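3.2 Worked example (two chains)
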Amino acid sequence: MGDSKGFRATRLSRPVGRMATLPTSPHPPLAEFELFVVGGPDVGKTFPLSGSLVRIGHSDDADIVLSDETVSHAHLSIEETPAGYLVKDLGSTNGTRLNGVPVVEALLLPGADLVLGESTLRFQPRRRVGRPELDDEPEPAR
């Protein structure tokens, strides 16, 4: 079976069984990720994420507070949604860039870089102490 757009429908000839319970989200929880500062005044710092909504800014009211004065008080949020991790600019003065592209709202993938003011934050899986496969570089042999 096909249609004019080249799509092909598949018809099942027998029941597949009872509907399975599917996970509510096809991705790991936001709490399994961190933001690693790769540029700006807080370079080298790591911010573990927690909960399903994280607010980032220059204000003490933010969940993650950056010392970069070019970051707005309430700059952006990252929210766990059924579709994935949604980054939203919260009306910041200098805007938000995701992998170099200005965004107001976009899905965030692991390894992506967020630029807020003069700061660059990498969204990555949390590094676990004692798991060398997650370290950036192996220690030199002695």
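3.2.1 Second chain
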Amino acid sequence: MPSRLPQRIPDPTLPIMEKAPDGSFYMNQTWYLYLYNLGTQVLPMGSGQPAIWSANGAAGNILESGGVNVPPVSVAPSSVTVGNATNAVNATNATNATNATNATYSTTGAVGTDNTTIATTAFVQQQAFGLSGQAWTNETSNRSNNTTYTNSTGRAIMVAVTITSVSGATASGAITVATNQIATKNVAASLTDCAMFIVPAGATYSINVTGTGSSIASWWELR
């Protein structure tokens, strides 16, 4: 009569060890019966018991998940020990915690090509345009027409220049950033209009307002 024990290797996704409600661990019944059958048919040891032993060399009963006792397992001390799963998880968590502690965090420095350093939220906000510490400041008294300035803040800034024209004459403001004339703001006669542009960190910038009687009414910077 053929054996009713499992004849094929169980599904590899089926866990060999399972955890009981009391915290102890037991071998899955399907795996146990398969290994028992393998031990009695392929690896006979004279006693008729399977070649499965516990770490301390003592025989014992393994409880199936439903609470049914399956045949005792005699174990050789030389076999691989199934460790405490909780300790294994704790060890993994400890390793992850250590790796996180040893990771490099950046709080200062310039933006570059480093793709291995972890940046803090404060660092990202300090580098991003319009966040953390940037505010509109009135630079009217510190700026002049057709004069080149350098953005030395370490971050991109925004410039807002108000241009005023007079009656019967138009005004024009040529905006230059990093030696490139990026735009021209034209203002009709007797009007006031605003030219706004962004200046990258380290770049130079200027605006040249021309036109009879035209002038710069105000100059603000988000920096």
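3.3 Remarks
Residues 85-102 form the longest helix (18 residues).
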